[in-house]
Amino acid sequence: MPSRDTVSWNCLLDGYARTGNVVAARALFEQMDYRNVVSWTTLMALYVRLKDYTGCLGLFDIMMQGRDIQPNEAILMSVLTACAHLGRLDRGKWIHSYIRYSGKVKPDMLLSTALLTMYAKCGEMELAKEVFAEMPEKSVRLVELYDHGLWNSRAWRGST
């Protein structure tokens, strides 16, 4: 490609992500002169898909240090998924506060589900209950997820 703009770079990045080639994707990402929200979203989602949750959180930290890119719903879903799998309740709570108070992200069904899942996997069912109560709509699958998390939390604590 004689001239690469951000869209071209992101297309290449997406190609590597689709094939699961995280090494090539990260190398390309590092070569980019400018990374937009699509660039960051693509790479964080790839880390989560490959179960490299620490890599996702590390990349998120780098993005937030730059302050020129604000996380969107997709980035926050990836980060919440990483927090859930790593048991990083502290980071998950920070994301929840960011969603509530930044005014930049409106929690939709998917983002709310990621929050609920993170709290449930971290054993914080009271906080999961708050998220569940605030959700504008609830699917049957979501109710099952909440009930399953509640049951697991009680079983883990030794009470049923």
A few lines on this structure:
This protein is mostly helical and 160 residues long. 74% of the residues lie in helices and 0% in strands.
Order of helices and strands: HHHHHHHHH
- Unreliable stretches (pLDDT < 50, length at least 5) are 155-160
> What sort of overall outline do the alpha carbons produce when their principal axes are compared?
elongated
Which structural category fits the helices and strands? mainly alpha
Average pLDDT, all residues: 88
Radius of gyration: 17 Å
- First-residue to last-residue Cα separation: 62 Å
**Biggest beta-sheet profile:** none
The number of helical segments is 9
How much strand? Answer: under 5%
- Kindly state the number of beta strands: 0
The number of domains: 2
The level of helicity is over 70%
Describe this structure as you would to a colleague.
It is built from nine helices and no strands. The relative contact order is 0.09. Helix 3 runs antiparallel to helix 4. It has two domains: 106 residues; 54 residues, no CATH class. The protein is an all-alpha fold and 160 residues long. Keywords: Repeat. This is Putative pentatricopeptide repeat-containing protein-like. It comes from Solanum chacoense (Chaco potato). GO terms for molecular function: RNA binding.
